[in-house]
Amino acid sequence: MKTLLAHINKAFDHRIRLAIMSVLMVNESADFNTLKELLGVTDGNLASHTRALENEEYITVEKTFIGRKTNTRYKATAKGRQAFQEHLEALEKIIVVTSDSD
Fold first, then answer.
1. Per the domain annotation, does 13 fall within a domain?
2. Number of domains present in the structure of the chain
3. What is the pLDDT of residues 58-92, one digit of tens each?
4. How many beta carbons lie within 10 A of that of residue 12, not counting itself?
5. pTM greater than 0.85 (yes/no)
């Protein structure tokens, strides 16, 4: 079991970061308000978790203006997609190994 846990990515330990990446894996991009509404989180909470993913280079942030309002969009990077896929595969291996032991 210890070797299986070695492939779990700490960046996705938190449910909000896991959810952000899940949304970005199936959508080309998502804006701040969409993520906030989908996940039911506060502005500050979402900002801190997207910053953590950005620091890992798992997402990119694009700020534009729509009229006079800023629009912040997030996209998963190739590095982020790969890391998230590896994380999911590690979770699947844990499920298979533990279900086989029953």
1. yes
2. 1
3. 999 999 998 888 899 999 999 999 999 999 999 99
4. 24
5. yes
